[in-house]
Amino acid sequence: MRVVVALGGNALLRREERPDAAVQLANIRAAVSALAPLAHEHELVITHGNGPQVGVLALQSAADRSLSSPYPFDVLGAETQGMIGYWLLQSLQNALPERQVCALLNQTLVSAADPAFTDPAKFVGPVYDRTEAERLAGERGWTVKQDGPHWRRVVPSPRPQRVVETRLIRLLLNSGAVAVCAGGGGVPVIRDEQGQLTGVEAVVDKDLTAALLAEALDADALLLLTDVPHVSLGYGTPGAEPIERTTPAALRAHQFPAGSMGPKVDAVCRFVELTGGMAAIGALEDARAILNGAAGTVVTPSGSYREAHHDGTQDLT
C-alpha cells in the first residue's frame, strides 16, 4: 500500500513541554519507532506539522533587534521544514538502514484571493492565558484566539491548491525511498501575473496539504496522527463519545473546532470522498493498529474497512 502519514506538530512537541531541541528530538525518535514498522511493509510518505515550532522562531525573530523587520512566515515555514525534516531524516535512516530516505523542502500553491487572509485562524506558537495573550497582541499586532482552555496567536491559513514538487515526490516513491515532505503544509506561495512563484505571509494547514498530496500520489491510505486516540463527540466533557468507524457524510454531520479537529475531519473526508480510499485520525503510538483498522477513527466510503495485503486478499477488520 502507498500510505501518507501526517504527524501533528503537538505530537512532536507536546503542550506544556519546553521547545528545546533535545525534547523535540526525543519525541521524533519515539515517532519514528511507531512509523518504522509501516515503512517495512508499505510505501511511506511522511508530512509533519510545525505550529509550535514556527511560533517559537517567530518569537525569536520578533525579538531580534538586528533585524529591520521579523522574518516572514513563509521563510519561517521553510526553516522549520529543514529543522524537523533533518531530525526525521536522521532518525529514519537509523531505524531503516536498508531504505533510502529523503527530506524534501516543498512549496504549496495557494490563492491570493483566499478569504483566510482576512480571517486568521491557524494556531501557531506557545499557549498563553488570556491576559498575557491580549498583552502580546497589543504589543506586537498579533491576532489571538482561544484554543481550548488557553489562548494562542493565529495567522492566515489559505487552502492548499497543489504541492509544487508533487512529481518529484512521486519519483522518490517509485524509486523505493521513504519521503519526508510538505512539512507544515508546505511553504505557502502564489503565482504572480508573470507566472513567477512568490512566498506569502501565511501558514498552510498540514492536514489539508497531506490529503491533497495523498490524492495526487494515488495513495491507498491517509493517516493523521496526533496526541489524541480518536475523534470524539463532546471532546473534553464527561460525556465524550469516541467515533471508531464512520463515513464522510456521517462525520461531516457534526461540528468540530475550526482551529484544531475541524481541518483534520475535513481532510480525511475529502480524501475518502475523492479516492474511495481509507483515512484515519488517531494517536501516533497507535499508527500500525490504525492502519489495520484496530484503533483510531477510521473513515471509509461504507464505514467498514478491509485491509489489503500484498497477495491480494483482504481481511474485514
From TrEMBL:
Record has Transmembrane helix as a keyword: no
Q: Which SUPFAM superfamilies match?
A: Carbamate kinase-like (SSF53633)
Show the InterPro entries listed in the entry. AceGlu_kinase-like_sf, Asp/Glu/Uridylate_kinase, Carb_kinase
Per UniProt, residues of the Aspartate/glutamate/uridylate kinase domain are 1-273
Gene3D superfamilies recorded: Acetylglutamate kinase-like
Q: Which residues form a coiled coil?
A: none
UniProt GO MF annotations:
kinase activity
Q: Which keywords has UniProt assigned to this entry?
A: Kinase, Transferase
Entry's family note = Belongs to the carbamate kinase family.
From the Swiss-Prot or TrEMBL record, give the protein name. Answer: Carbamate kinase
**Can you name the source organism?**
Streptomyces virginiae
